[in-house]
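By convention, each integer encodes one residue's backbone shape. The lines below illustrate.
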Amino acid sequence: MYQWKENKKEETQENLGGGTTTTTTYDYTREWSQDAIDSSDFKYPNDHQNPEMPFRNARFAASDAKLGGWTLDADTLGRVNYSQALKPGAPAGWTRSGDNYYRGDAAAPKVGDMRVRYVDLPSGTTISVLALESGDGFALFTTKNGYQVELAAVGNRSAAELIEGQRKAEALLTWILRGVGTLLMFLGFALFLAPLSTMASVIPIFGRIVGGAAALVSLAIAVPLSILVIAFAWLAYRPILGAGLILLAIAVGYGLWRWHK
């Protein structure tokens, strides 16, 4: 639905003699959103009212979907990351533009206008499934190490290809989480050192200098410490890689210390 969205911006300025002043400004833009935006939570809701959203995203699974002689349930179908646009006739009061259906003017939408898109996994699509046979369907199977597996993908793929695809996806997620962990560690040290910047901000230029130094110290601690945590986790499974990461952490920490010095 085309809706109002509130954007909040805060600017903090250091005061001469210490302390800070924070100024908060609000501006409102209109955009398409698949989630309902509650305008009653806005700072200034009077001129930015969003109507109730009449439709929400929905997913439907065919009850008689088949893969050869096996029945595919909603869970298995949901694992297939593929769809194509479905283009039925436009109902009364709606117009179609491209793959989307609009209730309102597609070229000049107003708040409350709707945009709907249909997608489906068409009949006849070749898919591959790696799972445990259960009756006339499929279910999760548990490996020796307790890992539960049920994989599905479009195309004629071998078990090795399905497993490799899942491994790459999980490896990417793991590195993203490691990056987030490093960022959180940096923010934690930065918050711990923040009082030093606050005390030095009695003279604004000193506050900025101390704040910059505190950020560098936080970075010098967070990066090698994060690498060490990752390295110790790897030691049990890949000792050579784990040992290499420990050496890397030491080198990074020493390099940052030398650079700061």
Notes: DSSP finds four helices and 14 strands in the chain. Residues 59-81+126-157 form one domain.
